[in-house]
Amino acid sequence: MSDIGCTYTVECWLRDSKDITEPQVTAACATLNAANIVWNADKGSVLMDVAVSPSKVLTKLENTLRQPVLIRGISNQESAVAILYDDISTMESPTISTVHGLCRLFTLAESKEVVVDVNVNGVAPNVPFDLSIMHTGDISRGTCSTGSPWIRLAELTSSCHGTIQTIFSMNGRLDEWIGRALTLIPKDTKPSTSISLLGIIARSAGVGQGNKTVCSCSGKTLWEEQQENAYSFEARTPVTKPSNNCRRHCCGKC
């Protein structure tokens, strides 16, 4: 079960650890071929080295331990996340925005490559999309204000269920990507094809750096943010949230 050419460290939090034992955690991590597993029952956190995508780690732990899990740190290097919303410039009424997924990005100590982990749902099935980093981070008017593509990361095709779940790596400097818009735009631009998605690439916590339990921008606990934003997308449907130019939601940096 290897998605990446080398291993990295990931830190996860469990919402309720009082009934979870170390053997249960170890068994769940073993299904990911994890190494160097460290379980902290007081914090409800587990550290491990894996070679699979963060999304697979999250899904496997949630399904095995039967409770919500947060990824609180990825790699000891640079890491970032972009929450992907409807492109308001293509919407008839820009008052509602839907969270369709997220993209996690991180660098590996063993290479100069950036790992890109994409999880999206609720788009049209069997449609090819361009995943790109745009010149600016201005999403006030959707893709109309982000500028042209700065780096084209990949062409991704949605499944027959309207999902995109993939991971890949490429050369780049993640610190130069942070603050720019990330877009997922259908290659066929006919209105009936599919919606476009976009979000801001925001710096996220590395391993051992994510100690906050309350989001500083919304005032909600991270568990409330997780449920509202459907951060574990494999088993949940897209959610709608109020949207305007400042989009009051978790910044993704907590």
From TrEMBL:
GO terms for biological process: superoxide metabolic process. It comes from the Eukaryota. InterPro entries: SOD-like_Cu/Zn_dom_sf (IPR036423). This is Metallochaperone Ccs1. The lineage of its organism: Eukaryota, Fungi, Dikarya, Ascomycota, Taphrinomycotina. It comes from Schizosaccharomyces japonicus (strain yFS275 / FY16936). One of its GO terms (molecular function) is metal ion binding.
